[in-house]
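DATA SHEET
Item: assembly model
Revision: 1
Owner: S.N.
Input lines:
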Amino acid sequence: MPNPTAAMLVIGDEILSGRTRDANMHHLAQELTKHGVDLQEVRIVSDDKTAIINAVRALSAAYDEVFSSGGIGPTHDDITADSMAEAFGQSIDVRDDARALLEASFTRRKVEITEARMRMARIPAKAKLIDNPVSTAPGFTIENVHVMAGVPQVFEAMVASVLPTITGGQPLLSQTYRIQRGEGEIAEPLGQLAKDYPDLSIGSYPYQRDGLYGTNIVIRGTDGAMIDAAMTRLAERFPK
Amino acid sequence: MPNPTAAMLVIGDEILSGRTRDANMHHLAQELTKHGVDLQEVRIVSDDKTAIINAVRALSAAYDEVFSSGGIGPTHDDITADSMAEAFGQSIDVRDDARALLEASFTRRKVEITEARMRMARIPAKAKLIDNPVSTAPGFTIENVHVMAGVPQVFEAMVASVLPTITGGQPLLSQTYRIQRGEGEIAEPLGQLAKDYPDLSIGSYPYQRDGLYGTNIVIRGTDGAMIDAAMTRLAERFPK
C-alpha cells in the first residue's frame, strides 16, 4: 500500500514579506518523513480569508492529510479558525470544551479572562481539539485538516499530539553521497543508475563552495537493502 | 495604482522530504518587498511533471509575475524546463543562443562538451534567456514566469538579472515594535489601532523566549508618515 499523502498550508504575511523565515515547514517535513507520510506540496498564503479558504479546499481534496500553521491567536489578524469553518460549511463560536481548558489555565496563572483571550476558544462546531501542552489554547482537526499554531514551540507540540492519530506507512529512508564534481560530469551514469533502480528516487543537488562545484546525490526509498545496493554502485563509479 | 502581484514556485523534493531548508524563498521575498512587488503566494511541489505543470498554470493565471526555482540542471531529475514548455504549449530543444553561451564557457574552462551538459541549453521556443553570471547556464522567462536555478548563489544572481526588467510599485515599508506581553493582553487595543488605520497592515507575531511571552507588532504600508503616526500611538499605549 502506498504511503498516505500530505500537504502543508502556512498562513503568514510575515513570511511572504521576507520579515521572517519559516521554521515549521522543515520540522513538519522531517516528522512526516519519519512517520511514513509523503509530504507532496506546501502552500504559503497571506492572512486573507479568501486565500485561506481556496487553498485549504484545494489541498483537502487532493491529499489524505493537511497540516496548517499560523493565525489561531487572539488578535484581529488571526482569521484562520473562522476561515476553516467557512471553508467546510461549519458554524463557529466559543466552544464549551475549549473554554473550559482556557479558563482553567487562566485561573491557575491568575490571568484575567477577557473577550479577546476567549477568541482562542472559537472552534468550528464539528472539529476535534488538538492538545497544546505548551500554552493551552488548542488547535483543531476539521475534516482532514489539522489546524495548528504558528509559534514554533507550540506548532511542534501540536504535531507531536496529532501524528500518533495518523496511520503512517513505511518510513522513507535516504542516504547521501557527496561527489566533488559538477553535475555535468556525473549526469550520464546517474541517469543510468536511476533507470536501473526505478523503485528508488535518486536526486542530484549541486552546490558551489569556495569556487568548487560538487554534487550531493540522495537516494531515497523504503527498501534499505536496495538503497545500499544502489549506493555501493554509485561509490564504485565515483570513488572518494 | 496597486503594486504588481507575484507568486513563487519552488520545485524541490529535497525540501518536502525535510533534507534541506529552502533559502531562496526568503531572499526573493525580501527583494520583491524592496522592489514594490507584492509576493502573495508560494507553492512548493515535488520533482513531478504533472505537479509542476498544474502549479505553474494556476500561478501564472492568478498573479502578474511568477518566479520558480530548481530543476534546471543537467541531470535526469531536472525536468523543469520541459515541464514549463509543456505548460505553455511551446516546443523545446537545445537552442542556438543558449548553446553558444555554454560552448564559450566550456571551451574557456577546458570542460568537455557532452550531451548531458548540453541539456542545460534546452530552452522553450519563445522564452527569453535570463543571464547567469555565476555559472553561465541560463534561466529563462516564459510568458510571465521567470524560471531560475535552485543553487542559492545562482538563484540570487538570476533574481538580480530579472528584477530590473519588472516595473515595481511603491516599496512596502515596515516598522516593528516589541511588547513584553502576550497577545491576549494587547489584542483589544491592537484591533482598535487596525480599525483606525485601514490602509496599514498591522500584524501581531507572538513569541516565547525563556518561558516569557511577548509579541512583535509589525506595521506595514507604503506611506511612511502614516506608519510613524500609528507606531507613535502604539508606543504611547504600550510604553517600554
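QC remark: Chain B touches chain A through 69 residues (CB under 8 Å).
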